[in-house]
Amino acid sequence: MLGFFLKTLRLKIEAKKGKRKKIKKKIQKREEEKSLKVKMGAVKNIWNEREVAEAPDCSQIQIPTSSLSVDPSLPLPQITPLITELCKDLFEKWSNLDDSRFSVETVSGGITNLLLKATAKEEGGNDVSVTVRLYGPNTDYVINRERELQAIKYLSAAGFGANLLAVFGNGMVQSFINARTLVPLDMRNPKLAAEIARELRRFHQVEIPGSKEPQLWIDMFKFYEKASSLEFDDSEKQKIYKTISFSEVYNEIVELKELTSHFNAPVVFSHNDLLSGNIMANDEIV
């Protein structure tokens, strides 16, 4: 299947060479139209580092931190007092509240992480909720947490997702969004699909500081190294595993990387995990 894809990819690249002049003209025309709209005030400028840095909820604000960690495998009755202790440690205004004022419940949607809704009844009687995100086991192997936290700050300033409120040993706390997590069936809804596409386009326009090198190939080779050095206790699984030609897999990855380098496509900040459980929608959209 991958061989067929590579062959198709080569044909596309050859076809692209003959169309580059036309594409450049189209891009130039599009940029001219875009420039004209900006001058007329019809298009808002794409977020840049300076705008985001000056935003009140961005990276210049010192967020609370804690060295505490919480085991995500624990059942809810055991995890509740730990989350309560964590919230009191992170947020000074909650530090003296009685434990009975806190409630914790699970939130649907998380795939690699455990999501919890923690609610505190403050002295004035108001219920304030936050989302506590506990990282899944071994996820640090594939996710750069420092980079993730930086991205969340900038995306939040650009109007995407929840605000980052605090970080702790194996997770983060964000503002709670009162919306519904989508299910696979929702992805067939044309109205929702159009809304997702519009937001994704806007998402790709957000400027995140840092390297513009594609992360895809770094992750691909990382997965390859992990996959090519596995061992199974089950003899049948090990026997099947030994039939895989990892040298062939490696060569195909290298070839695919070389072929895609001819696309001259811009490198943008991408979601890369756009499944239903990672999308929330409010009642107006649904």
Automatic annotation (TrEMBL):
Pathway: Phospholipid metabolism; phosphatidylethanolamine biosynthesis; phosphatidylethanolamine from ethanolamine: step 1/3. GO terms for cellular component: cytoplasm. The keyword Kinase applies. Transmembrane segments: none annotated. GO terms for biological process: phosphatidylethanolamine biosynthetic process. One of its GO terms (molecular function) is ethanolamine kinase activity. The keyword Oxidoreductase does not apply. Residues 6-33 form a coiled coil. InterPro entries: Kinase-like_dom_sf. Its EC number is 2.7.1.82. Keywords: Coiled coil, Kinase, Transferase. Pfam families: Choline_kinase. PANTHER family: CHOLINE/ETHANOALAMINE KINASE, ETHANOLAMINE KINASE. Belongs to the choline/ethanolamine kinase family. This is ethanolamine kinase. It comes from Rosa chinensis (China rose).
